[in-house]
């Protein structure tokens, strides 16, 4: 027994390796189904074909129940308290708003109201509400309930995290049972856009402490159970005033690891999963994606220091290969931003702007013209907060260094990064600061945070941009308001770049083949729009 | 025995107090809680509101004193992530799921490890010994994160025997429990093997052998029970390690709704109060496990007295 000692150890090792290899292989298409990858169309929805060997099809065919996996558990199911997508994934299906966005065009349309609101005077808007609708606990939905809902979310005592979204609303009152008036502090052209997020709550039930765990809405679903740490179970509201949804039962599960969500899709335990990382998209039976509202950008300080000369900031934009970032870093699940933190779905989007082409020679020439000679440029970034933020910094710093910049990176964990990043103009700010700018209001006014010299996250001072944004703020005429935004965005792109613009990230969902659904621009997981078959 | 238990209980309380103090100062001094709580574009007013809500506008000593007095009353504050809920109640809600998972895992680990270690010890150096040792070393060195995904892909996706995640079905516990059990089984098997080898070489075993008692009976009636004491020590240590660490990884991988997953949620939500409650509850559980182990010693080996 001299030789076998070592041989046995080798054999055991080989057996284990083989086991592991076998399990790895299953991750693609299995042994029968070949791993076909088909890019179906070049539009926003891309389908990757694959695994059909599981018995998922027999489980879900004709079924009226669906399991959706989201990454994190909601903190509360009170739809007016927080500002996080986890709560919305559930409450979007239980509660309703006066207005909503059309899933295809993203246009505002009435839901609990009968039409878009009309303006009574500069600071008063009037809604006419649908009649005969009740909350699932029997409380009537009328103008009193609507006024209560609006006043509740704006109440400083209640301290909702959503208040910023609803801007200058000062109060609401019922004129009669179906007529609601909402008052704003100033003329607010964005008012209708704000209302697509404000959910209507029942006055009696929402006053109780247990409301955070026992949602009561007017919507297509009611909650059956909230298993903490695990899932929320929904069932169709039998008394729903609108069309009955095709899916009658839904479970929204909380699964933090994307790999686990994908495994659930492969076995058919889950039919839809959110937040699939680009590199795992091909493992999912089907991938759905749509341009989202996140724009990773590098904020540039324009009023002092080495970046004061606009040519230096233009050079930075020429230096970065945006296509490479979209195609390689995000595996194609991103589109190059058109030199503005907006998509065409946003009001105020400037269609004339184009991304800076990747032109390192031009960047070097501009730097020479500007007399830049290797002075240090500080770059503040966060790591581990946003999708691929660390990799993004590595790539961008490499591009900038390539054309001659001397970058001094300061990459920190979020909690320490944010202390530096929130310093405003007048305080000590970094020359370059990474942030993921998002805009769920679908209105260009949200750019004020970065473009206005007094903006909360701004390191940018430009009188012309300030003037344009001031003009837009209280402009009731959509055409001239849009023109003001176009002007501000144009300055911030060409003459005096606000950011190094990079890409617009797509929201990526994994799904089973049987799921019929188009992701929405606003990221809402609205189950009545889904069907299986 | 009573004196011993009281003493151990007091030491346990001291441990919990030290852990609580460490948590307090680490979270207050190292991090900046109010900034981590809020979104990037929170207004200065929101920041002030959060500061006063958390009591961060008062001196550190005043905060610490209040924290300790509340701790004595078992008031660990309100969760920031789930407003209106006491942090302690959230943790206690999740505790049964973790205890169930860890208990199943340690039982599987012992059921695998004790026979493996014993068989390996019967003929040290034999093929059987080499094989079991290699297998247990493999289990021991596999990181739970990787092992968890491998088990999920093999038994969940490829073979379809068990659910890949969640806690919905009775069988859902199998894969996360295996991911916890296999590395632990490796360690305990090694321990079992070496103690059994020692034990089988002792004079009383040689005497038994001389009297003609078979190898199986020598193990069964004599050596086995004596080898269990170190295995129990190791097992209880491993159980505490699972509770205080490995479950974080395994519950996250398998979306198992226990305290481990809650820890990750509390961290991601920067929920200071909840994190404190998790750490203190887990520390208490470890103290209890150690105490229970001391009592178990006397059951296995009557020579051990707690005094």
Rounded to an integer in angstroms, the radius of gyration calculated over CA atoms of chain B is 24 Å
Which percent range describes the beta-strand content of chain B?
under 5%
Q: Which overall shape of chain B is indicated by the principal axes computed on the Cα atoms?
A: globular
Distance N to C terminus of chain B: 5 Å
Largest sheet of chain B: none
Please mark out the parts of chain B with pLDDT under 50 across 5 or more consecutive residues, or reply none.
none
What is the chain-wise order of helices and strands of chain B? HHHHHHHHHHHH
| Topology, number of strands of chain A | 23
Describe the protein:
The complex is a heterodimer of chains A (533) and B (307). Chain A has 533 residues and is α+β, with helices and mostly antiparallel strands. Chain A is built from 15 helices and 23 strands. In chain A, strands 1, 10, 11, 12, 13, 14, 16 and 21 form an eight-stranded mixed sheet that branches. In chain A, strands 18-17-19-15-20 form a five-stranded mixed sheet. In chain A, strands 4-5-9-8 form a four-stranded antiparallel sheet, covered by helices on one side. The radius of gyration of chain A is 26 Å and the shape is globular. In chain A, 47% of the residues are buried. Residues 1-63 of chain A have low confidence and may be disordered. Chain B is globular and about 85 Å long. Chain B has helices at residues 2-30, 33-37, 44-54, 60-72, 87-122, 127-141, 144-158, 174-200, 203-210, 215-254, 259-268, 272-300. In chain B, 41% of the residues are buried. Chain B is an all-alpha fold and 307 residues long. Chain B starts with a helix and ends in a 7-residue tail after the last helix. The interface between A and B is large, with 57 and 54 residues.
Task: Summarize it.
The complex is a heterodimer of chains A (533) and B (307). Chain A is of the alpha+beta class. Chain A has 15 helices and 23 strands.
Task: Pick out its properties.
heterodimer, A: 533 residues, alpha+beta, eight-stranded mixed beta sheet, five-stranded mixed beta sheet, 15 helices, 23 strands, disordered N terminus, B: 307 residues, mainly alpha, 12 helices, globular
């Amino acid at each position: 027994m001299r030789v076998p000692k070592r041989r046995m150890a080798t054999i055991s090792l080989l057996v284990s390796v083989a086991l592991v290899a076998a399990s790895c292989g299953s991750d693609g298409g299995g042994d029968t189904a070949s791993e076909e990858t088909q890019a179906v169309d070049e539009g926003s929805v891309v389908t990757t074909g694959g695994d059909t060997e599981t018995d998922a099809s027999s489980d879900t065919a004709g079924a009226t129940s669906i399991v959706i996996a989201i990454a994190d558990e909601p903190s509360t199911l009170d739809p007016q308290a927080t500002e996080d997508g986890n709560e919305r994934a559930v409450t979007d299906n239980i509660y309703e708003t006066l207005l909503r966005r059309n899933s295809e065009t993203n246009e505002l349309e009435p839901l609990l109201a009968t039409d878009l609101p009309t303006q009574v005077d500069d600071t008063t808007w009037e809604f006419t509400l649908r009649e005969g609708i009740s909350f699932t606990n029997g409380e009537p939905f009328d103008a009193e309930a609507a006024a209560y809902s609006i006043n509740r979310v704006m109440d400083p005592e209640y301290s909702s995290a959503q208040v910023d979204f609803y801007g200058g609303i000062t109060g609401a009152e019922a004129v009669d049972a179906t007529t609601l008036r909402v008052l704003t502090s100033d003329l607010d052209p964005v008012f209708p856009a704000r209302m697509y997020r404000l959910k209507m709550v029942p006055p009696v039930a929402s006053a109780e402490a247990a409301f955070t765990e026992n949602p009561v809405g007017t919507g297509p679903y009611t909650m059956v159970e909230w298993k903490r740490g695990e899932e929320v179970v929904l069932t169709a509201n039998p008394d729903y005033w609108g069309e009955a949804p095709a899916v009658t039962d839904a479970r929204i599960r909380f699964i933090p690891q994307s790999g686990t969500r994908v495994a659930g899709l492969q076995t058919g335990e889950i039919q839809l999963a959110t937040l699939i990382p680009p590199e795992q998209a091909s493992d999912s039976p089907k991938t759905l994606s749509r341009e989202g509202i996140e724009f990773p950008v590098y904020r540039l300080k324009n009023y002092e220091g080495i970046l004061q000369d606009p040519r230096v900031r233009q050079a930075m934009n020429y230096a970065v290969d945006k296509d490479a970032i979209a195609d390689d870093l995000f595996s194609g699940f991103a589109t190059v931003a058109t030199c503005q933190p907006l998509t065409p779905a946003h009001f105020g989007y400037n269609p004339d702007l184009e991304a800076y082409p990747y032109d390192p020679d031009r960047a070097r020439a501009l730097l020479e013209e500007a007399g830049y000679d290797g002075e240090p440029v500080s770059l503040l970034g966060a790591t581990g907060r946003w999708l691929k933020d660390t990799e993004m910094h590595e790539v961008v710093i490499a591009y900038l260094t390539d054309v001659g910049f001397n970058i001094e990176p300061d990459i920190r964990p979020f909690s320490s990064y944010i202390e530096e990043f929130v310093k405003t103009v007048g305080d000590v700010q970094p020359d370059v600061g990474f942030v993921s700018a998002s805009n769920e209001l679908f209105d260009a006014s949200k750019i004020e945070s970065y473009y206005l010299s007094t903006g909360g996250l701004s390191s940018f001072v430009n009188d012309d941009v300030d003037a344009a944004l001031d003009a837009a703020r209280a402009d009731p005429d959509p055409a001239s308001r849009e023109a003001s935004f176009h002007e501000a965005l144009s300055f911030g792109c060409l003459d005096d770049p606000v950011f190094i613009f990079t890409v617009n990230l797509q929201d990526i969902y994994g799904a089973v083949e049987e799921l019929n659904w188009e992701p929405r621009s606003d990221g809402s997981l609205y189950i009545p729009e889904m069907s299986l078959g | 025995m009573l004196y011993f238990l009281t003493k151990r209980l007091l030491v346990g309380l001291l441990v919990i107090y030290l852990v609580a103090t460490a948590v307090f100062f680490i979270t207050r001094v190292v991090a900046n809680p109010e900034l981590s709580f809020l979104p990037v574009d929170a207004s200065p007013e929101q920041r002030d509101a959060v500061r006063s809500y958390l009591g961060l506008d008062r001196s550190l000593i005043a905060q610490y004193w209040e924290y300790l007095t509340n701790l004595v009353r078992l008031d660990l504050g309100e969760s920031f992530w789930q407003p209106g809920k006491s942090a302690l109640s959230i943790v206690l809600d999740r505790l049964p799921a973790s205890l169930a998972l860890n208990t199943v895992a340690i039982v599987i680990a012992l059921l695998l490890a004790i026979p493996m270690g014993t068989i390996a010890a019967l003929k040290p150096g034999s093929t059987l010994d080499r094989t079991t040792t290699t297998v247990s070393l493999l289990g021991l060195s596999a990181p739970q994160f990787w092992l968890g995904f491998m088990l999920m892909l093999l038994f969940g996706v490829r073979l379809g025997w068990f659910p890949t995640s969640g806690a919905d079905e009775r069988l859902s516990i199998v894969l996360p429990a295996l991911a916890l059990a296999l590395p632990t089984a490796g360690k305990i098997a090694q321990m079992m093997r070496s103690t059994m080898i020692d034990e089988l070489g002792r004079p009383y075993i040689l005497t038994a052998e001389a009297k003609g008692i078979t190898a199986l009976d020598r193990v069964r009636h004599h050596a086995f029970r004596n080898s269990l004491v170190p295995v129990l020590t190791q097992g209880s240590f491993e159980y505490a390690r699972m509770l205080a660490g490995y479950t974080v990884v395994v519950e996250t991988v398998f979306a198992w709704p226990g305290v481990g997953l809650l820890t990750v949620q509390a961290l991601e939500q920067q929920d200071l109060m909840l994190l404190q409650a998790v750490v203190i509850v887990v520390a208490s559980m470890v103290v209890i496990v150690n105490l229970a182990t001391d009592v178990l010693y006397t059951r296995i080996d009557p020579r051990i007295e707690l005094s």
